[in-house]
Write a structure and sequence with these properties.
The complex is a heterodimer of chains A (about 575) and B (about 50). Chain A has one domain: Hydantoin permease (Orthogonal Bundle). Chain A is about 75% helix and about 0% strand. Chain A is built from 25 helices and no strands. Chain A is globular, with a radius of gyration of 24 Å. Chain B has about 50 residues and is mainly alpha-helical. Chain B is rod-shaped. The N and C termini of chain B lie far apart (about 80 Å). In chain B, about 15% of the residues are buried. About 10% of the residues of chain B have low confidence. Classes of the chains: A mainly alpha (about 575), B mainly alpha (about 50). Chains A and B meet through helix 2, helix 12, helix 16 and helix 25 of A and helix 1 and helix 2 of B.
């Protein structure tokens, strides 16, 4: 038999998804997170309302969906050649000495995000528990006015996460947020420990429908609230929806409003972060597909599920319900611009005033917890896959090693709790800068190094639907250009402010930022060294033999004929 | 809620709902590759045995 670049794979058993719907829900679960319900509505409402949806959908079309297809197809391509981790997948895509090191970003991004995301996940579960136990209402029981209630929930949140000073872990008493962090950590690791199909896939198949059911329940409640306070007839559901969806151009025409680059930056960033492209997770998940499983329809379905949760659920619930009970005067840029202010201060005030608010508060925060855990479950799988295939470690050993690393990072975030500076620093550098870089690398590698013709052949293999021809032009020219422009704008708007903030910080805060940056740098270097060792191992095992950087030829007709000749 | 707001909301939500329903319909209606392609090829018919 002639040797081709699929040979190494066929010799070894691989972990694979049990069902098509399972992988779609797992990818959708990874994408649907707190950003869909807290970030998107705030960003849309403060950036033109209805006008924002124009750059938003354009960004979805030329950035989100094309990169999603690229990630699905190159992930499956790497998986068909026996690689499930980004270093291996990128090496299969572009066989040379440096390509595997580019994959270190796809390891540090999900692991780094996991370290703080799991903490936010714990807040959601703790808030849901507080609603069920009645504790949440007690926090603002003595508040007579709306402003006092907001202030009470603000105090509660600051105390709950230890925003006042560093050293949250060593205050001398067991903090509730830390207890819930431990609980959430255990849930995550039990599910990850059980494996791809019995853990992640099984949980996603239950949690995603449940998440949508809970969100729809809250949505129906919000849309049927009418005018909650008859003394304030302006605070009615139609005006609330208008606050979110009316095109807001001020004194400008719609074209002048659309000429604002900041609006495009926010729209593209939202699409980008929301679909979880550039995280390295889709690459890893797609690698567990069979070599002729569909990626086009599956990728589009996962993306559309994410969009449904974001536009139809997040867009119709969060801002309208906040408007109904707090009014437009309270929904300023500070509240809408911060997911934490909106989610953990403004919305608890809303639920405190809503009829049967405790029940809906519990449903809402449990729904957020489900959205968060389906995302966090996916974040360690890329690094687990790397340890498994790079060093021959079993899943349980890989999970144990990673759990220690992730726990250390989470403890750093919890300990340096003052103004959530450690969390914010990790989010900016790992959840912002690194993601932009990785997505740019992926799309350039796929469109220019692997080549559009090869990519088209690879994507078309087993495709359940055809990608319109203009998308190939978009993937090759428009997506990388748009991505680079948006990244440039993002750096232009954010980096100077960030550097200025660091300069004006107290020495303690500056120390926190530098410590977190040092930790991330060391982590990146360690992953680079491990990739180097893994590369040597792959070479010694002969796993790099036959890598061509091109799709394997289609199966020969003779094979099919052989089985039907009587 | 202005008429323009209604238009934006209905088009945005309607498009996303329609796309999602269409995708799930196609996913559930299309058999997976392993259901209908692999099995017949993997059956050893011994037709070339001598």
């Amino acid at each position: 038999m002639a040797r081709n670049d699929l040979t190494p794979v066929l010799a070894r058993p691989r972990e694979q998804w049990a069902s098509k719907i399972g992988v779609i829900l797992a990818v959708a679960g990874s994408a649907v997170g707190l950003g869909n319900f807290l970030r998107f509505p705030g960003v849309a409402a403060t950036n033109g309302g209805g006008v924002f949806m124009i750059p938003y959908f354009i960004s979805l079309l030329i950035l989100g969906i094309p990169i999603c297809w690229v990630e699905w197809s190159i992930g499956r391509y790497g998986g068909a050649r026996g690689f499930n981790s980004a270093p291996g997948i990128l090496l299969a895509l572009w066989p040379n000495r440096v390509s595997k090191y580019l994959g270190s970003l796809a390891l540090i991004i999900p692991v780094g995000i996991f370290m703080y995301y799991v903490y936010i996940e714990a807040w959601c579960l703790a808030y849901a528990y507080d609603y069920l136990s009645g504790a949440m209402a007690a926090y603002a029981r003595e508040a007579a006015t709306e402003q006092e209630a907001v202030a009470a929930y603000q105090r509660h949140f600051a105390d709950f996460v230890g925003m006042g000073e560093n050293g949250f872990l060593v205050r001398g008493s067991l903090q509730k947020s830390v207890v819930f962090l431990v609980i959430v950590f255990i849930i995550n690791f039990v599910l990850i420990y059980r494996g791809l199909t019995k853990g992640i896939e099984m949980f996603s198949k239950v949690a995603m429908p449940l998440l949508i059911l809970f969100a729809v329940m809250v949505l129906v409640r919000v849309l049927t609230l009418g005018t909650p306070n008859p003394e304030q007839p302006d605070k009615n559901i139609l005006n609330a929806l208008g606050f979110m969806w009316n095109p807001k151009t001020g004194d400008q025409t719609i074209w002048q409003a659309l000429a604002n680059p900041e609006m495009w930056l926010y729209a593209a960033s939202q699409i980008f972060f929301s679909l979880s492209v550039g995280f390295g997770i889709v690459l890893n998940y797609a690698s567990y597909l069979r070599s002729d499983d569909d990626v086009v329809l599956s990728g589009l379905t996962a993306s559309s599920t994410n969009e449904f949760c974001e536009v139809c659920l997040g867009g119709l619930i969060t801002i309208p319900v906040a408007f109904l009970f707090l009014g437009p005067e309270s929904l300023n840029k500070d509240v809408l611009g911060s997911s934490f202010s909106l989610g953990f201060i403004a919305l608890p005030t809303v639920f405190a005033r809503m009829p049967v608010g405790a029940l809906f508060g519990a449903i809402w925060f449990f729904m957020l917890f489900l959205a968060a855990i389906t995302s966090s479950l996916s974040m360690l799988q890329p690094a687990i896959a790397f340890f498994e295939e790079g060093f021959g470690m079993g899943r349980r050993v890989s999970v144990t090693c990673l759990s220690m690393l992730a726990a250390f990072g989470s403890l750093l975030v919890v300990f340096f709790s003052k103004n959530l500076l450690a969390l914010d620093t990790m989010d900016f550098w790992v959840g912002g800068v690194c993601i932009f870089i990785l997505a740019t690398v992926e799309v350039i590698l796929a469109g220019w190094v692997f080549g559009i013709r090869n990519l088209r052949d690879e994507v078309s293999r087993g495709a359940a639907m055809r990608i319109p021809g203009f998308f190939w032009f978009i993937i090759k020219y428009v997506s990388p250009t748009y991505l680079l422009v948006i990244f440039g704008l993002w750096v232009y708007y954010n980096l100077p402010t960030r550097i200025q903030d660091i300069r004006s910080m107290s020495s303690e805060d500056r120390g926190t930022v530098l410590l977190i940056l040092s930790f991330l740098t060391v982590l990146l270097i360690c992953f680079g060294l491990l990739i180097n060792l893994a590369g040597k191992r792959w070479r010694a095992e002969g796993r790099l033999d036959g890598l061509t950087g091109r799709p394997a030829p289609e199966p020969r007709p003779a094979v099919r004929e052989r089985s039907v000749i009587p | 809620m202005t008429p323009a707001g209604w238009v934006v909301m209905l088009i945005s939500c309607g498009t996303v709902v329609a796309l999602t329903l269409y995708c799930y319909y196609r996913v559930l209606a299309t058999p997976s590759s392993s259901d209908h392609l692999h099995a017949p090829l993997e059956i050893d018919t011994h037709d070339q045995d001598t």
